[in-house]
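User: We ran a pulldown and think these components assemble together. Before we commit to crystallization trials, I'd like a predicted model of the whole complex to look at. Sequences follow.
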Amino acid sequence: MHLWIEEKELKEIKDKFPSIAINKEENFTYIQVKKSQLLEILRFLKDRLNYKMFIDFFCIDFPLHNPRFQGVYILFSPEKKKRVAVKVWAEDNSLPSVISLWKGAKWAEREAWDMFGVKFEGHENLVRMFLWEGYKYHPLRKDFPLKGYEEVYLPSLNLRPGEIPAHNYSPYHTEIPTMEDLERTQKKRMEKRNQIVLNWGPLHPGTHGTIWFLFDMEGEYIKNCDIILGQLHRGVEKIAENLTYTQFIPYTDRMDYISALCSQVAYVNAVEKLLGIEPPEKAKFIRTMMCELQRINSHLLWLGTYALDLGALTIFLYAFREREKIMDIIEGIAGIRLNSSYIRIGGVAKDLPEGALDVIKHFCEDFSEKIKEYETILTKNRIWLKRNVNVGIITEEDVYSYGLTGVVARSAGVPYDIRMIQPTDAYDKVDFELPLGTVGDCYDRYLLRMEEMRQSVNIVRQCVKKLEKMKDENYIASDNPYVLPTLEEVFNSIESMVKDFNLRIYGEQVPEGEIYLSGENPRGELGFYINSKGEGRPYRLRIRSGAFYNLQIFTKLIIGRTVADAVALLGSLDPVVGETDR
Amino acid sequence: MVKIKYVKRPELENRERIFFIDFIKGMKVTLKNLFRKTVTTYYPFEKLTPPKRFRGTHAHRVKDGTEPPSFKVIEKFMDIKDGESRCVACYMCQQACPVPELFKIEAIQTEDGRKRVVRFDMNLLNCMYCGLCTEACPVDCLIMTDIYETAAYHRGSCVTHMEDMAERAVDFDRRRKDEPDRIWIDDKERSKLWGQIKWS
Amino acid sequence: MELVGTVVVLVIKSVIFILGMFLGAAYLTLLERKFAGHVQQRPGPLHVGPHGFLQPIADALKVLTKEDLVPDNVDKVLFYLASLMAFVPAIMILAVVPFGDPFTIFGVEIKPYITDINVGLLLALAFGSISIYGVIFAGWASNSKYPMIGGLRKAAVLIGYEVALGFALVGPIMMAGSFSLREIVEAQQNIWFIIPNILAFVVVIFCVLAETGRTPFDVQEAEAELVGGYVTEYTGMKFGLFPLAEWYIATFVLSAITVILFFGGWNPIPFLGWLPIPAFVWFFLKVFLLFMFFLWVHWTLPRYRVDQITELAWKVMLPLALANIFIVAIWIIIFG
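Assistant: Here's a predicted model for the assembly, 1118 residues in total across the polymer chains.
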């Protein structure tokens, strides 16, 4: 099931703007426009054709092409449930900023500037997104080496030669920011206008990772706020360009490390679609079940830390008690608790072990009771109500303008759930309810996540019932030429061994093409755009992170509120730094 | 089928507000938990056995007559004695690895023209334990064991060599080779964590 | 001669009280940790001594032998003074808290209190108020942003709740007709003062939680917002004194005062007076139960925002305390 714009509307655009070129494919439909017409066409798409939700913006580098950089906008129409992509070449290395149309473009454009050095005319504060001010390079350009330019001497790696572990530790390192660099970065982001500037982060118990908030405060009230990201930036997109499609799977775990399985599934689905692989039915149900378990796991971590932030210390351990059980299940099935790397192209890595379904069934029974316990302590507690109700209200307009997805969008009453609008795996074969909020405040987001956990348990139950009947079926479509054979096949047949060698060495030779496909992560829409040039490695892999876009609205919502609300608000937006920074 | 529903926002009634019913209900839950059994394990004194699929420190299976057919095909080109690692230096693990620098594999040609693996080092500091290398091994040599306590005092000690790996695999196979592929093994220890839940 | 005797007795008593309180507070930490542990289905401290029984001693040794760091840019005098200002007034309240009726052992009459002055309750309130300075000093002297916000928050909370607490205590005082804590207990032999003073009791519970900085009022060190609040820059024993004073000694002493005011002090629980239990056991039993109640609240509820706390103090607690005075006045008119 694809979600791309229909022929009729493409025609309408073509009639209005004859100079555009349309490329309609099953996986990716885009309109190629000229830079001078970009804003006009985007406005037409937004206002006239209702493509009002901003999904993503990113750049692609073609070093041999002139102009060198290509910008890609992906938009979504909530009424028609259709996507459209707009491509534009960045002549003179610059593009017009679209902040006037969508506020959510602000960070995406900053990221493009940071990574590619594409300028944006009319951007309100075009500073680096992840790297620090004064960094000389733009790392996602194709001419930037994977290891970076090793130019800083780090003697600490060489102080005790006897302890250096064998191989290739070079004493030279890529550039690292100094204190002055960080200070410059901070100054560029925000000016002090009020009483004190509070550096809330980068290492602070309330920020859930390494986000660096700057609060310009008047007493306890925050008058201005900015966020400095990038402390966990590892250049996952760059790494992906140098790995085969299978090798990248463990890296998807490490983006949103709290819901690793969901990220894997979203990535693998995109690759499979591009390769035209259909995983077996059993693998689909296993994936759905594992995803939902991971969603409960992720929401439990959120519940625990959110309650901890708001002072309810005990809930934290109650939530972790249950989370531990899911971790045990995932450990038993995948082998590792957190970064499981269990999903493979064409299926899953291993079959379900003996007793797994039984354990999951018992967990579902037990968990429904435990969730009641959490709700008794929190839901109607007057303090909980006071801290949550009417804090950080998000409107429907915000959702479209900022590209908010996941629970944050649904709390504002927007029924945007990838599981519903573009069901992958077995999501079209299970029944569940999609909870929506009515107000859009923190309390709604709390209620939604609790309800989602209940729905997830429901889905897991249905999957278990289905899987019990599929005991002996195949769990990976290893007869497909693009799918790695299982170990038994390699041991016993020379053909499989050769196929295995080929796929490991050259990678999956994905046919030339593009795809944008997303999955519903616990933190919002996790989209993967893959541009393949017919090689074993992606030419460009862009990760549209839900948390990245969701976090953007924080600066708007917090202004005029207190530090205590910042905790509640950040908790309810629930970003994971691994995913925002990537 | 997906159904859309709006969540109900519960209101605190006046009766509940005046008599602190919300607090009392919450405190009842914590009191109930006060008398439940603890769910923790006392880690350094008490260790849980990981499931058989657990991906811990790497090991090399040795040549002991249980090799898969694929090994038998390659064996005649190799100089491997019984009880030695059955690595054939095909470099597949390195190819499959997302961080290939962590492997250091060297093989030489012996006088009779056969191949002998002389070095197989893994720098586990760079390893992310994704298990792709074990899935790539065509002769069932490289495996992952259930050893998870890998801390060391020196970075140098985090590099594991072929002989250690062979030893580790022998130990692992002795302990767990015949175990069924169950979700986890020691129900008794797990039941502590899981409380009252029963499973077959 | 008589003066010397009094002084010697007073000194001995004070030493016993202070040492007892120190040891008691140390074991209250263990109690809290054990309680919190089991509420959260984990065992709490377990390995120092049988069932962690020697944990407080290990903690004390650890905190005493820690390096005593003083950051460069702090106001040194206030920085040192702050931890004392928080701790000393809390323990000084003990001077006026009676733990039982005088009794005789071997022909010597022993009074289980240090002094019994006729303004005991006022003195206790006054000492309680002084500890605000410790908090404000700590926040200011640390020369850091988080401690300052934390200190000011706590000051705002304390000021609000001191007033409400003061008015809430008027009810029992009116009924007893005395400020002396001992006389208040004696006045409750027939009926505990909680009967007409139920509103005041609710107010006092909230006030004790607020004054001792326990959830739902622990805004001053809300670790998700302010890292450690006003103790962020403190280390070693200077740090240790704050929680010891606030969470344990103050909670314990205020629980004792609450028991004296509302639950008949060392009078036995109704219908159980025939049990052969000494008075001070009754007293400690009640204090213990109240202390556990505070722990229980602490480990269950989330926390308020600071503006909500002060709003609660001025808009709800103060009117309730005033209403209580009114009710008690009518009660006295009717029942004498």
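Chain A touches chain B through 82 residues (CB under 8 Å). That may be worth checking against your pulldown data before setting up trials.

User: Thanks, that helps.
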